[in-house]
Amino acid sequence: MRPRLFVTVTALAIMAGMVCLNLNQRPVHAGEQPSASGYKVLEPIRHGNLTVFPVVASKSYPTSEFLTLDEGLRSGDVVVTEAGNVQGLIRRPSLPVIRHDGAQVNRLVLVNNSTRPLLLLAGEIVTGGKQDRVIGKDRIVPAESDPVDLSVFCVEPGRWVATSEHFGASEAMYGGAAGGGSFHGAAPMAMMAQPSVRAKAMADKDQALVWDEVRKQKTAETVVVAGVAPAAADQIAQTSSYARLMENEDVKKQVDAVAKPIEANYESLIHQLRDRNAVGVVVAVNGRIIWADVFASTDLLQKYWPKLVRSYAAEAVSSGNYGKHGAITQRDAQAFLDDFQAHRQSVESDPGVYRTTELEGNGFDAFVLTSLLPGENFNVHVAKMKLG
After folding, report:
1. Which domain holds residue 92?
2. Is residue 364 part of a domain?
3. β-strands 50-56, 354-361 pairing
């Protein structure tokens, strides 16, 4: 087993200055003024209380080698299991093994048997095992890896009984296959938790807060569905699983009503903007910016877009005030995306594989995943959340 060395560094900004992340972007388009971040926010797409601002960049990076979790689970090249089952997954028995006494709430083990490096995003949900879990941080897993410990959080309070030995994607259908091309298909995908749940795992890193947020969202969805399907609302109230909540047919109808128009409009826009490198979105709900996801390439955005848009739509549905999108502007979204000045910076590195940087600033928390694989040194994914 190749030794894994994780280096964590925390920097506190003092009176001498502020920490600022260089995103290494150039001016976006001829005749346009470069933004502070190097990204350009475009006119919004709105539906109901959800507003999505497309983001373009000056440069696209090579990302075709990355395997997504959806692709790995479908092909069987990626195996996720409880920590207690790891002994049966060792690829090279003559080497030292990771040993655990048994399953643990905040730990899963993953093996990447593919010849491609695996990209994992914080917020992706795997279902099965003793409890459904949400991945707690972005990371890259090398090709043909030995077992890797995953930092996860439970999103199914109450269950601790195995439903299957290994974890898989949600049974719900979430738009296109993760191989690119059309966004429409029938392949199940690993669900993406909505931003409010992702935030508790990524920024707070607190299991109790994750559970509290799951319960809060279940209550909100129950209220929404109760207005159109009282019987379904009773069924929702009885489930403890966030994944099962989002798979409920009545909840899916509410989410689809918001997600599908946004997905279709942006799908068309991505094709139009491919030459300008459409790479992400800034998201607002009820006239308030809540989130941004930005990728290294249009192709990578396309792979994640179907489940990302559903996560944003779920946030919009559970936030209430449906039909009101407020007065959030393109300038507001650009200002949010440009601000990466931070008073605290934490860096975790797996040398030669990846680096994650957390930036805590005034009113935001940002997470940057950088690939350090041979021949690479670029940001694969940037997630930014609005605080307060």
Report:
1. 7-386
2. yes
3. unpaired
- Please report whether residue 2 resides in a domain: no
Nearest Cα to Cα of residue 217 among 240, 235, 234: 240
220-224 long-range contacts (CB < 8 A, ≥24 apart) are 220/317, 220/318, 220/319, 220/320, 221/245, 221/248, 221/251, 221/254, 221/317, 221/318, 224/251, 224/254, 224/317, 224/318, 224/320
Structure-token match 């941080």, residue found: 137
The candidate with the shortest Cα–Cα distance to 248, out of 260, 258, 263, 238, is 238
- Number of domains the chain is built from: 1
Contact between 143 and 77 (Cβ < 8 Å): no
Q: What strand order describes the sheet that includes 148-154?
A: 78-82, 107-112, 148-154, 133-135, 125-128, 167-168
Predicted confidence (pLDDT) per residue in 9-46, tens digit: 555 443 333 444 555 444 334 444 446 678 999 999 99
Q: How far apart are CA 309 and CA 288, in angstroms?
A: 17
pTM: 0.84
Residue 1 domain flag: no
Helix ranges restricted to H, the chain: 69-75, 195-199, 207-226, 230-238, 242-247, 249-272, 298-318, 330-338
Looking at residue 365, its amino acid is: D
Asked, for residue 122, whether it belongs to a domain, the answer is: yes
pLDDT under 70: residue ranges of the chain: 1-36, 84-105, 129-130, 157-188, 321-326
